Amino acid sequence: MTRPRPLVPRGDPADSVRVVGEFGVIARVLAHAGTSRAAEVGPGDDAAVLRTTDGRVVATVDVLVEGRHFRRDWSSAEDIGHKAAAANLADVAAMGGTATALLVGLACPPTTPTSWLEGVAAGLAEECAPLGAAVVGGDLVAAATDSASVVLSVTALGDLGGRAPVLRSGARPGDVVAVAGRLGWAACGLAVLRRGFTSPLAVVSAHRRPVPPYAAGPAAAEAGATSMCDVSDGLLADLGHVATASRVLIDLDRAALVRTFLEPAGPLQQVASALGADPLAWVLTGGEDHALVATFRPTAVLPPGWSVIGSVRPGGKRTGVLVGGEPAADVVRAVGAEGAGHVHFG
What residues form the membrane-spanning segments (predicted)? Predict the structure, then answer.
């Protein structure tokens, strides 16, 4: 494994936000924004105007705080832009929608180099471009005088294209549970970075720039998905939300999880062996890969890219997630994970 080189920006003070000024920075950032197919009025006025095909708008927001969600010595500005966009675009996909635009609010120290902010803007635009979306507005403010951290708030808007939204509350007994995308890679990459290394590059890159399966969300909605969720905090944690909202038990097939995410052996096993860890812990509890998990009726034809990993059982007074019939908490302890997933105020 190789140790990381610091990526903290060291721009010329003459290029700082304080010197260039709010509107100068905004002009530079907007030069990287790209174009949204849905925008009738883009950046430059008091608000953007977007076209929508069916009269409804999907809306979601995430806040990323430096030191908790990203580190500038681990990730480039472009990486952080990609990650901030992906967290929100995946939420739109999890409703069965397609993203149309982003609104971005950013608080940063006045000494922040404008070149770093341009890098974030470029990452946001690159992540949005394949979907035809773009940043269409936002706000830039100075962080508190006693703060050296960046706070990035991203709101994503999306279009359902005439489809019904897929909620967390629709899972029914007899449904199958399926996943699109990969699990455990971002958590594995985080474990590598925390130990001061940057290889294997595949998992470190997965932490820096998630690769959500955006098209899988609308495809699942078309295929009749009964519930769906973005896996941002961990498979067990996020399926727990589905189980609670739907008042059911969700039983994951351990063999299917291993077959789907750990065969053939790859970087996760390589890192787990080096660290004395169980790679299944990352699959079950690792967040930020932004895979999609959904339930379908057993007769449904699953779209390409979806793999069955479990089933839904009646809940009665008991709801939650099982793995091979065992309570998730017992499995979490057995694989050596710290908990069922990310805890925001832990």
Answer: none
d(C-alpha 143, C-alpha 150), whole Å: 7
Each residue of 115-141: pLDDT tens digit?
Answer: 999 999 999 999 999 999 999 999 999
Annotated binding site: 46, 60, 62, 69, 91, 138-139, 168, 230, 232-233, 288
Amino acid type, 199: S
Tell me the CATH number of domain 168-334, given options 3.30.930.10, 3.40.30.10, 3.40.50.620, 3.90.650.10: 3.90.650.10
Question: Whole-model pTM?
Answer: 0.90
Q: Are strands 135-142 and 98-108 parallel, antiparallel or unpaired?
A: parallel
* Known binding-site positions for Mg(2+): 46, 60, 62, 91, 139, 230, 233
Decide if 17 contacts 114 (C-beta within 8 A). Answer: yes
Joined together, the tokens standing for residue 104 give 């971005």
**Residue 42 pLDDT:** 79
